[in-house]
Amino acid sequence: MAKNSTGAFIGGILLGGAIGAIVGVLVAPRSGRETRQILKKSADALPELAEDLSTTVQFQADRLSESAVQNWEGTLERLKEAIAAGLDASQLKAQELNEMRNIAAKPTSSSEQRD
Fold first, then answer.
1. Residue pair 25/35 in contact by the 8 Å Cβ criterion
2. pLDDT at 92 over 90
3. What helix, strand, coil percent values describe the chain, rounded to 5?
């Protein structure tokens, strides 16, 4: 469903752009020759513009990727620390329980005197 919505949105953008370009050419205050020259210059500049846009997008993607890696590494480090702290606490609690069992298992001095 989301793909259909995205396709319809992109189609609407393209159709609106085409209609806008046609209307712009028809109501332009310049002559046809001047408009064609401007369009030719614009078309000639498109490859350079596309290259600039591609470079910018690549730069932003690299920056976001680097940021994501740094955030992930920080998250992993905190997770390792939390796991280590949990293991330490678990071992400490296990030792405390064993000590309590040992104390409970020892006969008291009053019961030793009765026997």
1. yes
2. yes
3. 90, 0, 10
Interatomic CA distance for residues 10 and 69, integer angstroms:
31
Domain with 91 in it: 51-104
Q: What is the pLDDT, as a whole number, of residue 110?
A: 56
Between CA 115 and CA 102 the distance in angstroms is 21
pLDDT in tens, 49-87: 888 888 888 888 888 888 888 889 889 999 999 999 999
Q: How far apart are CA 55 and CA 49, in angstroms?
A: 10
Residue 8 lies in a domain: no
Question: Structural domain tally of the chain?
Answer: 1
Report the C-alpha gap between 93 and 31 in whole angstroms: 88
